[in-house]
Amino acid sequence: MGHHHHHVDSSTGKIKVAFFLNLGFTIIEIIGGLLTNSMAILSDALHDLGDSLSLGLAWFLQKFSNKDHSTDFSFGYRRFSLLAALINSVVLIVGSVFILTEAIPRLMNPEQPNTIGMIILSVLGILVNGAAVFRLRGGDSMNQKVMTWHLLEDVLGWVAVLIVSIIMTFTDLPILDPIASIGITLFILYNVIVNFVKTMRLFLEGVPKNIDLEDLIEKMNAVEAIKSTHHTHLWSMDGDHHAFSTHVVVGSSATKEEICDVKDSIKDIISSIHLDHVTIEVEYEDKPCSITEPKNE
Ligand SMILES: [Zn+2]
Ligand SMILES: [Zn+2]
Ligand SMILES: [Zn+2]
Predict the structure, then answer these.
(1) Does residue 108 register a pLDDT over 80?
(2) Which domain covers residue 249, as residue numbers?
(3) Mapped to the 3 state alphabet, what secondary structure does the chain carry?
(4) How far is the CA of 151 from the centre of ligand 1 (A)?
(5) pLDDT tens per residue across span 191-205
(6) Which-ligand-closest: CA of 283?
(7) Rounded to the nearest whole angstrom, what is the distance from the C-alpha of residue 226 to the centroid of ligand 3?
(8) CATH assignment at residue 103
(9) Torsion sign over Cα 8, 13, 14, 19
(10) Tens digit of each residue's pLDDT (9 = 90 or more) over 115-130
(11) Rounded to the nearest whole angstrom, what is the distance from the C-alpha of residue 61 to the centroid of ligand 1?
(12) How sure is the predictor about 143, in pLDDT bands with cuts at 50, 70 and 90?
């Protein structure tokens, strides 16, 4: 349970490449969207502009989150990438609302876009976003998961634009352009909100969803030498690296050996969880807790 183990982390370099790919492609998209008069492409361009900003921010913040502990940030810098994920979500929610206000009026007044230009841009979009997903895959931080899923959605969005532009090439249905734009945006908005809720749960120090704290407490109380437990807390730094603290009460005449056994038993109980910080306070039955009354928990 040491504080100094490290994952081999190449995610910063991956985010950097994704950032420059995305930024370059955004410029091509804006020009292409204006030239083809396609709402679907133009809204994707605005969307990718938001992506580029978020990626740049994530790249910058992840440099900090990989640093070790300091006396300024005693838990380390993992939560900096959580902050990046939160800003990411906010930028994308604002961007999606903007896209909708642009695309909805086009439903009443559709304009025929240049569908051949749209086909070329969608194929390019699939290639660029596909390459970014390929580079980011395998990351395990909350921030990287948000981005990998997001880029995957972008690929699917471009596939949808490709299909729509092929249909519009052979039919007179210009309304498909704003419909595709709105559909893609609503899908992205839904996923962003789901991720936003997850990020907020981490900020609010909720118990990670895959961990049953009640079960852990029951197991601790089942250890013979443990009379009771209180102030048991389990929270997460970034969705993958967790922290745990608890107070355990032992008999008033517990020996050093018994106390060491109690600690070993607790470490066994929590061994399956990826914990970076573990604090176990041992208290004697006849010595009241020095922090607060258990009922105030
Ligand atoms: Zn995107
Ligand atoms: Zn610690
Ligand atoms: Zn206590």
Answers:
(1) yes
(2) 213-296
(3) CCCCCCCCCCHHHHHHHHHHHHHHHHHHHHHHHHHHCCHHHHHHHHHHHHHHHHHHHHHHHHHHHCCCCCCCCCCCCHHHHHHHHHHHHHHHHHHHHHHHHHHHHHHHCCCCCCHHHHHHHHHHHHHHHHHHHHHHCCCCCHHHHHHHHHHHHHHHHHHHHHHHHHHHHHCCCCCHHHHHHHHHHHHHHHHHHHHHHHHHHHHCCCCCCCCCHHHHHHHHHHCCCEEEEEEEEEEECCCCCEEEEEEEEECCCCCHHHHHHHHHHHHHHCCCCCEEEEEEEEEECCCCCCCCCHHHC
(4) 6
(5) 788 888 988 999 999
(6) 3
(7) 13
(8) 1.20.1510.10
(9) positive
(10) 999 999 999 989 888 8
(11) 19
(12) low
63 shares its domain with 173:
yes
- 59 CA distance to ligand 1 middle (Å): 16
Q: Which residues pair with 87 in a beta bridge?
A: none
Among 170, 203, 236, give the residue marking a domain's end. 203
pLDDT at residue 88 greater than cutoff 80: no
Region of 226 (left: φ > 0; alpha: ψ -120 to 50; beta: rest) is: beta
Nearest listed ligand to the Cα of residue 44: 1
Give the ipTM of the model, two decimals please: 0.68
Identify whether 87 is part of a domain. Answer: yes
User: How far away, in angstroms, is 123 Cα from ligand 3 center?
Assistant: 62
Asked if the structure places residue 5 within a domain, the reply is: no
The CATH number linked to 235 is: 3.30.70.1350
Domain assignment of residue 151, yes or no: yes
Q: Is 30 contained in some domain?
A: yes
CA of 8 to the centre of ligand 1 (A): 27
Res. 1 pLDDT band, cuts 50 70 90: very low
C-alpha 240: how far from its chain's center?
A: 11
